[in-house]
Specification:
4-stranded mixed beta sheet; alpha/beta; Signal recognition particle alu RNA binding heterodimer, srp9/1; 160 residues
Length: 160
Amino acid sequence: MTATQKITPFLWFDNNAEEAVDFYISVFADAQILNLSRYPEEVPDLGGKALSIVFQLEGQKFMALNGGPLFHFTEAISLLVDCSSQAEVDHLWTKLCEGGEPGRCAWLKDKFGLSWQIVPKQLGELLGDPDPQKAQRVMQAMLQMSKIDIAALQAAHDGA
């Protein structure tokens, strides 16, 4: 039996929701638009533009809205992507940073202002080491990084 997603992140865009969704669909391998509704043609300045878009990235459903300039994204909310390899970290980091800005410790802001955390699963494993010295070395290494480098984290963990 397939579980139904009960909570769906709702993303408010000024007027570029369709451009943003198309971008996100191009970045993630498992991605698709599930539903798109448009403003009626008779609506001034908005006729024919996307009103709302339901889309899916890696099995997670989202909704995007062209709601106007009232609200903007902040770093208080981010989308955390759990990556299985350095190649996946590198790919997502590079694509999502295009036109955006890299941050510290796996955080970035994409060209639409949405914050992401591109995190390899190994980070949690290394930070959770029962040896507090190893975990602390990993933390110190991570704090020096923008994009996470798994090999450098592992070297810090091993004391190399």
